[in-house]
Write a structure and sequence with these properties.
The chain is of the alpha+beta class and 279 residues long. The protein has helices at 2-15, 22-27, 32-40, 59-67, 73-79, 126-136, 139-151, 157-161, 168-175, 183-191, 229-244, 254-259, 261-273, and strands spanning 19-20, 45-48, 51-53, 70-71, 92-94, 107-109, 199-205, 208-214, 218-223, 248-253. It contains 13 helices and ten strands.
């Protein structure tokens, strides 16, 4: 019976994601002696005085427990499946607001949490992730993460607007929308905001969605790696249908938007100067 209780401790740690606080296990009814025995038998390892882990647990969670931090910012955003400009060379973590942290190679964010952090968690909640991203990344990169969170319905606009944001985060809460399917779309709209023209994203025209409609008639499509074979033929067919309806269609590549933006902007400026965005 005793060994069953010890194994139950290890099973519960695994259920909790592989890293857990012994105090939580005790609150749930596991005995302190069983927790210690699970460590002695090697069923779990002691990461820090107040954390234990299953063998083979997520290395990011183990590192956070060992250093007394929580995963946050772009590292947590990427783990949530949000659009991130690029993976940083070092993990990004946050100080949880209690105790000291051990030496770490990670980038540490020290902002006070906008939503209280539960002591049993090793990953920031989405609102705290957005807060650290806003303070850490350039505006358009941060906006891409925020809009990705909205698009995936991890947060909603009314909820964001009720929180006491400061600095860049306050501006983001006022300006973001849930319509961008990717950070690429966020970049496009943000970079052309100075034109003071309506730019609509992902709208349906002639039975297909278009990436962007500038003004009334200028369609801009961004081609990714899928723009080949049957997809390319279908795109060409739709372009022709749009042109017969009086739209002008421009196609640019992902690589152009990400790495050669000035030439994309110049083409759009020329099109607008010629009135191609007007009916």
């Amino acid at each position: 019976m005793q060994i069953d209780r010890v194994r139950a401790v290890a099973d519960r740690v695994a259920d909790l994601g592989g890293v857990a606080r012994p105090t939580r296990l005790v609150r749930e009814g596991h005995g302190r002696r069983q927790v210690s025995e699970a460590v002695s038998r090697g069923l779990v390892t002691r990461v820090r005085r107040d954390w234990i882990a299953s063998p083979g647990a997520d290395e990011y969670l183990v590192a956070a427990a060992r250093t007394g931090t929580v995963l946050s910012c772009v590292t947590a955003a990427e783990r949530l499946g949000l659009w991130v400009h690029e993976r940083p060379p070092q993990p990004h973590v946050a100080h949880p607001g209690r105790g000291k942290i051990a030496a770490t190679a990670a980038v540490v964010h020290w902002q006070r949490a906008i939503v209280p952090r539960h002591p049993d968690l090793l990953e920031d909640g989405i609102e705290n992730v957005l807060m650290t991203v806003a303070a850490c990344r350039p505006y358009e990169q941060a906006r891409a993460v925020w809009e990705s969170a909205l698009n995936k319905r991890l947060v909603d606009l009314p909820g964001l607007e009720r929180l006491p944001w400061v600095g860049v985060a306050r501006r983001l809460a006022q300006e973001v929308t849930p319509w961008a399917d990717s950070g690429l779309e966020t970049y496009f709209v943000t970079r052309l905001g100075w034109l003071r023209l309506p730019i609509r994203t992902q709208i349906w025209i002639e039975g297909h969605r278009v990436d962007f409609l500038i003004g009334e008639r200028l369609v801009v499509q961004i081609d990714g790696g899928h723009h080949v074979g049957r997809q390319r033929s279908e795109d060409n067919r739709h372009d022709a249908a749009l042109m017969l309806l009086g739209f002008r269609v421009m196609r640019v590549s992902y690589e152009q938007v990400m790495h050669r933006w000035p030439e994309v902007q110049e083409q759009i400026m020329q099109a607008v100067a010629q009135g191609l965005h007007r009916a």
